[in-house]
Records
---
Amino acid sequence: MAAPIGVFDSGYGGLTILKALKEQLPHHDFIYLGDNARAPYGTRSFETVYQYTLEAVNWFFDQGCELVILACNTASAKALRNIQQLDLPKMAPGKRVLGVIRPSSEVLGTYSKTHEVGILGTTGTIQSNSYPIELAKFYPELKVFQQACPMWVPLIENGEFDKPGADYFVVQYLNELFSQSKRIDTVLLACTHYPLLEAKIKAHVPGGVKIIAQGDIIAHSLVKYLQNHPKIDEKCSKNSQMTFFTTDNAETFEKQASLFFGQKIEANHTDLA
Ligand code: DGL
């Protein structure tokens, strides 16, 4: 039976990806899950993020989903490979789980003229080295500079992203990134929460530097994927419906979610176990 596409994040960040997915695939159904009760993932260990993400993937499969997008860089960095290589073949060989790091890496090099790019992400994403590894496959000549921004997700999740206090931490991490090289001309927001800080980031980067958010990249890549995998696309239901779940309080989720998604939503609570 056809089912919605699952979209997962540790909390609200994946909604910035879902927004773009909905624009590119308006007829497809989506089911969103934010693991808000256990967010943030960014500073958690490999084992913990893998365990939490696997539980979420299983939850989507219980809802009937055939395709799940990990709309979270941290989960993509720490859990995707194990899930694809070890768990899926045993658990559900016909189902698919995709992440955000490969599609972002595939196109990032095309934006840079100096062949020097910056990656801003959570501590987990940066320490995993997933971006330099993936980017080297597509752009062996590209110089990749990384900076972890551990204060940004808490600022965003606590509604401080547009307040003056946020500038301090935006400037701090940008300075640390650009102190590694003045030739960086393209910066990837490699955390799905960061688009909420985009205005402040743009205000503080050196002139001419491009700031790249992931929403449109992931959406275009999913459109291409479904065209290339018509059998998977056939298993995706298309009634233009979206449903939202959180592992924390549904009312709180509804209030915060509109900031990330750009429109009001109705949310439901779920436990993963
Ligand atoms: N939005 C997630 C990402 O893209 C991270 C948020 C978190 O730290 O939980 O990495």
---
Amino acid sequence: MDTRPIGVFDSGLGGLTAVRELCRLLPGEEIVYFGDTGRVPYGSRSRETIVKYARQDVAFLRQFDLKAVVIACGTVSTTALEVLTEENALPILGVVAPAARAAARRTRSGRIGLIGTQASIRSGAYEKWIHQERPEAQVFAQACPLFVPLVENGRTRPGDVVIETVAAEYLAPLQAAEVDTLVLGCTHYPLLEAVIRSIMGPGVDLINAGTEGARAVAELLRERGALAPQDAQGGCRYFVSDHVEDFARLASLFLGWDVTGAVGQVDIDLY
Ligand code: DGL
């Protein structure tokens, strides 16, 4: 048994997709969330910058004596997981391997679509994990650089002409490739699930990297006997590197519970 909190971070709102699933699976756990809203998006930046930001994010979270860190960000998982693992003596888990494995297991036709940030797609990390599990699978990858800024600005709803136009353009090649499974390889993208689903149709299985990552964490903590006691009262504290209000409003909408009052601001340059 381990009552210490789990640290979770992302460049912004996207990691809440992992938080929502962690809270559902493990309601007794304490979670400390950091969203680097002052520097989002990460996905269009160089490897050096992403590694530097990720190191600072982990340094901030490690003030809390954590039992594990979840990189609830596809971009950081594809780009900095190895560095962070080498530098930190606690379990650090990413979202890429769990999401890739889920896609490889669930596809029937072996035709898998992958959407992510430019850095994630460039890394080839999702393909590597998919092919380890299913060597004959065909992966059709598409970077979607405008999705993260649109999500951070709350442009997520079906009927919003901006997000619908952008999504239709990004997803057209994947529709043409007749994929039966689509990996939402950036944790922001499940906030666009309704829009993506309406374009791809009901026959395409959507894999949520945040959810798959959270399931992998729950499994690891269970295996290691490191869960909080059954009767523990869990909870979540949130920190961001920019306006608290915008994050609290969008996070409350997405999570379905009110986080106002539980969000603090951090000067991430101090770490
Ligand atoms: N949620 C991050 C990811 O999963 C977004 C990266 C970004 O800020 O561009 O890749």
